[in-house]
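Summary for the funding panel

The consortium committed to producing paired sequence-structure records for every protein in the target list. Below we show the first two records in order, beginning with the earlier of the two.
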Amino acid sequence: MFANKNLKARKGDLIVCQNGHRVGHFFRDVLQDRKIEADDLEFDAELTRPAHGYQCLTCGEPVATFSEKDRTFSVYRASGWLS
C-alpha cells in the first residue's frame, strides 16, 4: 500500500489522548489542503465536551479542540497534534 502524500489523515487513523488511550478514529480521509471537520471524526464513546473540544474519558486529557475563528478541529494522534 502506498502512502498518499495529499492526505493529512487516512480513514481509520487512530485518535488517542496524550497518555495513549484510544478514543476514536478518522471516519474518512482528510486531504492536506482541507480543514478537519466534525464529520471526519468518529469517537468510540460519548466524550466529555468542554467549551471547544473533547476530552478522554479515562484521564481527562484533550483529544480534539475546535477553533471558532478558523472553524477547524485540531486532533491528537500518537504522532502529535494535527490541524
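The next record, for a separate protein in the list, is shown here:
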Amino acid sequence: MKRAVYIGGFINGKQLAEGVADALTVYYDAVDAFTFSNAMDIPNTIRRAVQGVDVFTHSAGMLALAGTNPNRIAAFGPPLPTTPLALVGRTVRKTVRMHTPGIGIQTRADVRAVGVYEAGAVAEVFAHPKGNFGRLGQVAAFNAVHAGIAAEQSGIPTSLVYFDGDEYFQLSAAQEAEAVGGGVHVQRIPGIHDELALRPEQTLRQVDIEQLL
C-alpha cells in the first residue's frame, strides 16, 4: 500500500489538514494528516509516521520533519528567515488578500473555502494557542533552503514549492540558486500563501505532483 503523510501549516486546523490529505488520496492509497501544533508536540510519533514514506508539508509544517527519515519531502511555501514581528504584520496582508476577489476568492466555491479556513484557524488558535504562537520564533528562524539541502545530503529527495503571491515567504534568486546548487528541486507556481489549504486539488494539479513522486 502506497502511503503518505501531510503536515499542515501554522494555525491551520484539523479540517484543513484533512482536506489536503483527501486531495492527496488521488495519488496514494492512504494519507495520514497532522496539524502543525500536533506534529510538533509528538516528535516520536511523527518520526515513526514519516519513516520511509512521502511527506507533504505546508508552511511551518516542514519544521516537524527535523530528525526524521521520510522517503521524500515536498514542502509548499515553507519558512525562510524573518522576524516574528514581520510574520505578524504579513498576516494582516494575507488576510486581506485571502478575501479579495480575483486573488483569494476566484470562484463561488472559494467563498466557502475561505470560510472553512477561517473557522478552522479560529478553532485551532483557541485549542492550541501555545502550540502555535509559542513557536512563532522557531518559524521565523527556520530556513527551508538549508533544511532542504540537509535532507538532500541525507539522501532524501526534497522539493520546495513557492507561490508567486505568497505574503509570507518569497524565495530570492540567490536563495533559489543555493537550493538548486544543493540538489533541491524548486518550483514556483501561481497562488497565495494558503493556496494549498484553500484549493488543494487545483494546487496539486498545478505543481504537477507526479514530478515530485
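Regarding this second record: The domain at 3-212 is CATH 3.40.50.1820 (Rossmann fold). The mean pLDDT is 92.
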